[in-house]
Sequence to fold (295 residues):
Amino acid sequence: MTTSSSMTAPAKVNLALHITGRRDDGYHLMESLVAFTDAGDRLDVETAEADEIVVSGHFAAHVPIGGGNLIAQARDLLRASFGAQASGPVRLHLEKNLPVASGIGGGSSDAAAALRLLRAHWRLSASDAQLSALGLRLGADLPMCLSARPLMARGIGEAIEELPQFPPLPLVLVNPGIPLATAEVFSVLTRRDNPPLPALKPLRDIAAAAEWLNAARNDLEPAARGLVPQVADVLRALGEIGALTARMSGSGATCFGVFSSPFTARRAGRALTEARPDWFVLTTGTQAAEKTHAG
Fold:
């Protein structure tokens, strides 16, 4: 009997990202406030006669299918770790809705979804902590993408503190249609020892979150703007259309605007789509913290 299951691989948004140092091995130290959206890619897994990866969706043509595919690497990593328990061949179908190399964790989120789906599909006895440790071998973003909840990430991204309280934020994501390699952005950084994030106070609503974000920054943004000047155009457009705060996510070139309500976000998204049909525009929102504190 064929069994199948599916999962959304949400976009990862670095709401703030401070680069605070660099390790001897070249990895950069960071502090980042991270949230995940309601929208993203979609991954399905089902039993098959032989391993297969199928990619569809708007950005399918940009996804590597061979050894560079993080979904395949996630599958093979579980096989190497669990042997016969993970031997059954599978068909993995990725619906690629998010642009590639765009600073919103698409590949890492896809791989995290693959790890979670395959753990359930093969009924592996792996805890969340074990899965996170395995994921870190695929990339520094994997542990946070496995969490997929509002969090603070420190170190190289592996030290995660899930937030007990964080409001859902109405967002518009905008990408100018230009891929931007993370390594390229880091290679042109002029400073790697910036101050840490401001102390994170309880952010009970959108206005409080926007106020805190406006006191923070993305230390990769100036370098990315130098490589892709259109980032500045996107940020300007988001500000002009009413975003409470606008910033680049991750290493870019995707930017986000936080809006006062889902209605104003939808209105802004429609206006940007009409004004710039060559841009990728996605109206969405961040997922709230799983646990909330009253009061």
User: Anything to note?
Assistant: The mean pLDDT is 93.
